[in-house]
């Protein structure tokens, strides 16, 4: 393990497409969506703890979730749980951890990863991460991990890369495309020049801070003005002054799509961003009728291709349903056609309009 290697696990999202299991006060990264006995953030932490020193693992989350993180990751030093005062997308989150690490260790290299993705092959993942760290430690470069697409999925961003490697398995990025329509996605996959964007980034901290200064100068300026307060008693107060001044922008839009030193490693480690109930369906064991069932007392009669997630203590009997999502919690029951799952966000907005915040 290298003492200058760090990880920032981003865990501030609310996971609204996994409603009603994922709630504002207890979102999906803290849930056992796949019925494995571990939550998504616990899987993510364990994956990194295999090759990054525990004291170098940080979780950046919303202030309101700091207690949940501490409860679910008891081995993580409590000072490594960084609470953001407000949600401002990924660029401010990455600026925060980068300025903090620069004060602590100017030689730091950083992996930035979401807390709620599924990775099935931890050995292959570790190998790719170490390759990426090795590359960025030798070059002023930003690495993103790209996933070999298995079908023209419209829910993922795509990375186009040059066909000649600059070194073993590292390629220059040509373009980023946010979630394309189906026809474009088919063209991308058929060309062989595109990868899914996993949203996992690797770089030296000093280099990403230079990029902030160049591409997001206002954000860089507000963090830089208070950088001496990081890692000390004034940090929380400084953040409360900094965050209202930050633009709500992703690192992808803010820096990655503009920088000319972005590279990709084509990867295959059983990745899914677990963004929707259908992605959970794909990754849960099925019965003989292709029903994915999480719940100890579910009886299925003449029903096929359903995603069912219900409390263990509740008896649920399904008859005749086909291609549905059924999710039951103590106060909400969702029954939704699988091919309408992209509309769940809209249903959540409708619930908010008609019923207020109570069921969110």
Provide a descriptive summary of the structure in words:
There is one protein chain. With 360 residues, this protein is α/β, with parallel strands linked by helices. Helices cover 31% and strands 23% of the residues. The protein is built from eleven helices and 17 strands. It has helices at residues 40-49, 66-72, 90-104, 122-138, 182-191, 205-215, 217-225, 235-242, 251-256, 277-282, 344-355, and strands spanning 5-10, 57-62, 81-84, 109-114, 118-119, 142-147, 158-161, 171-177, 194-204, 262-267, 271-272, 292-294, 298-301, 307-309, 316-319, 324-328, 333-337. The strands form four sheets. It has a five-stranded mixed beta barrel with strand order 6-9-7-8-10. It has a four-stranded mixed β-sheet with strand order 12-14-16-17. A two-stranded antiparallel sheet has the order 5-11. Strand 2 (57-62), helix 2 (66-72) and strand 3 (81-84) form a beta-alpha-beta unit. Helix 3 (90-104) crosses helix 6. The longest helix is centred in the middle third of the chain and has 17 residues, at 122-138. It is globular. It starts with a strand and ends in a 5-residue tail after the last helix. The relative contact order is 0.14.
Q: Helix coverage percent of residues? A: 25-40%
Mean pLDDT over all positions: 94
- Summing up helix and strand content along with how strands pair, one would put the structural category as alpha/beta
Count the helices. How many? 11
- In terms of DSSP E residues, the strand content is 15-25%
Oligomer: single chain
């Amino acid at each position: 393990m290298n003492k200058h290697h760090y990880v920032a696990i981003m865990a501030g999202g609310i996971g609204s497409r996994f409603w009603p299991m994922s709630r504002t006060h207890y979102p999906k990264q803290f849930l056992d969506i796949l019925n494995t006995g571990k939550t998504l953030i616990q899987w993510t932490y364990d994956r990194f703890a295999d090759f990054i020193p525990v004291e170098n693992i940080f979780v950046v989350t919303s202030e309101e979730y700091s207690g949940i993180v501490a409860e679910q990751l008891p081995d993580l030093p409590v000072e490594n749980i960084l609470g953001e005062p407000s949600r401002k997308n990924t660029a401010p989150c990455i600026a925060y951890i980068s300025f903090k690490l620069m004060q602590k260790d100017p030689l730091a290299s950083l992996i930035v990863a979401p807390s709620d993705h599924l990775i099935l092959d931890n050995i292959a993942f570790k190998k790719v991460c170490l390759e990426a760290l090795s590359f960025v430690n030798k070059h002023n470069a930003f690495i993103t991990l790209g996933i070999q697409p298995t079908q023209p999925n419209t829910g993922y961003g795509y990375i186009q890369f040059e066909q000649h490697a600059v070194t073993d398995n590292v390629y220059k990025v040509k373009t980023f495309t946010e979630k394309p329509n189906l026809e474009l996605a088919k063209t991308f996959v058929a060309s062989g020049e595109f990868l899914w964007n996993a949203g996992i980034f690797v770089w030296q901290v000093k280099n990403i801070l230079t990029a902030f200064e160049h591409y997001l100068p206002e954000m860089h300026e507000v963090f830089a003005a208070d950088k001496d307060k990081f890692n000390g008693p004034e940090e929380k107060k400084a953040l409360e002054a900094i965050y209202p001044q930050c633009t709500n922008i992703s690192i992808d839009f803010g820096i990655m799509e503009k920088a000319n030193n972005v590279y990709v490693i084509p990867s295959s480690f059983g990745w899914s961003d677990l963004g929707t109930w259908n992605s959970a369906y794909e990754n849960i064991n099925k019965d003989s009728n292709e029903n994915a069932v999480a719940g100890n007392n579910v009886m299925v009669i003449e029903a096929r291709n359903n995603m069912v997630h219900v409390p263990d203590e509740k008896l649920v009997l399904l008859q005749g349903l086909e291609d549905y999502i059924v999710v039951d919690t103590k106060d909400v029951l969702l029954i939704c056609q699988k091919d309408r799952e992209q509309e769940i966000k809209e249903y959540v907005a409708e619930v908010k309009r008609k019923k207020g915040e109570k069921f969110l």
